[in-house]
Amino acid sequence: MDFAGKLAVVTGGGTGMGRELVVQLAGAGASVATCDVNGETLAETKNRAEAAAPAGVRVTTHICDVADEADMLKFRDEVMAQHDTDHVNLVFNNAGIAGGGSFITGDRAEWEKTFAVDWGGVYNGCRAFVPLLVASDEGYLINTSSVNGFWASLGPGIAHTAYCTAKFAVKGFTEALLEDFRINAPHVKAAVVMPGHIGTDIVINTRRVHGGDSEAMSAEELVQLRADLTRRGMPIDGVSDDDLRKMMVMMGEMFRDNAPTTAAAAAATILDGVREGKWRILVGDDAHQLDKAVRADPEAAYGPEGLSLQSIFGQ
Predict the structure, then answer these.
(1) Average pLDDT over residues 178-206
(2) pTM for the whole thing?
């Protein structure tokens, strides 16, 4: 698909891959409507996208909680009104957060919020915008899953249930839509995106979405964090609560800044996959290596001696 003259919708456009998708789409000549829960970061995205865009491209920003269907429908209505359109050409269901690690010991509200954003955001986005893709002459639905959509783990000793469950759902739903579109809307394509470790603010943003930030963790959260870190073998004896809070801030920044793939590179890979008409887009060398490892020996993917980034990459 050539992006020039098309209208794209991007969720989670305030930071990370979402922001880069907006900027690169606009730079390629597509008008873009993007949403996020953070108006300040959206404004920065808009500024960057407009600076990269040729004349005639329009970029609009919208406040929307993708987990809320009413919010998503309001977003859709704003897109139709502000872009004076009855269709869109591209929909990137990109918004996501982490959290909800343990189904057994974790906080239920956090688990359900994570699932609501990561799966519900895709479902709500499709309910709102797939009819507008069908109304177009040429449409493409791009749903962001994860390597955790084919490998439900972060490695031995780390519970990671809500995020993985949601990302498996996104992958399965998108693959099921391939045949649905072929039968009922053959001019619309679908793709599932499975990134590895990408340099985004997902760790930092997750704390904000779940009602706080790493510098203001509650006593209960700190107790759970200490237990998790101890189980992973991290030496935290004698570490004060304040130092632990600072450590979490630093870990979020390190996740972003030390990733093997930047958000800009990830967005470029995604858009190249869309240009080529792919339905399965792996992002990052780590994603490709994990995919091969899981496919080669699924039985060995989990458990005390199961797969980990260290076992795959020797880190």
Answers:
(1) 86
(2) 0.86
